[in-house]
Design brief:
Layout: H1 2-10, E1 15-17, E2 20-22, E3 41-47, H2 49-52, H3 59-64, E4 65-72, H4 84-94, E5 103-107, H5 112-127, E6 130-132, E7 138-141, E8 144-147
Parallel strand pairs: 3-4, 4-5, 5-6
Antiparallel strand pairs: 1-2, 7-8
């Protein structure tokens, strides 16, 4: 608490986030500050941030957030949602897990980007134990089934 207080007084435009000084005035979606080292987080279901936009999701997200299921909800080609770069980041991040856990990707919309990515990287997906559901798939969770496009948080 004292360190945070000193930091705020000595650097009024900066604050500490996870022990790292940040500049809230920065418009950059990705920080140039190093990500703190720590163990990965394992979850059952993760929503890929910002409708799978490349604005703030990179391979580091997939290295650190290891999910059995990732939801891709983007359906806005004008804004790059979903982003091919983010889907490729999943492959890159998962390739560095060191363990071949099953991962299921759940796109909630049928988009040209996800179809092309699926077709062009299918061999790599199989190698990494990644299964991609069709957007019209039904998901069963906690004894309840519903269309994949209905996943909400």
């Amino acid at each position: 608490e004292d360190e945070l207080s000193r930091s705020s007084h000595s650097n009024p435009g900066k604050s500490l986030v996870n022990g790292i000084k940040t500049n809230p005035a920065s418009n950059s979606p990705k920080s140039s500050f190093p990500v703190p080292v720590g163990p990965p987080v394992y979850v059952d279901l993760a929503y890929i941030p910002n409708h799978c936009s490349g604005k703030n999701t990179d391979p580091e997200f997939f290295k650190r957030v290891r999910a059995s299921y990732y939801v891709v909800s983007g359906n806005d080609a004008v804004n790059g949602e979903p982003s091919r770069a983010v889907l490729d980041a999943l492959l890159e991040g998962k390739s560095q897990w060191g363990e071949n856990l099953q991962v299921t990707l759940i796109p909630t919309h049928d988009t040209e980007v996800t179809r092309e990515w699926y077709q062009q990287t299918h061999e790599k997906q199989q190698e990494l134990n990644i299964m991609v559901l069709a957007s019209s798939s039904t998901v069963v969770m906690q004894d309840e089934s519903f269309p994949a496009c209905k996943i909400e948080f």
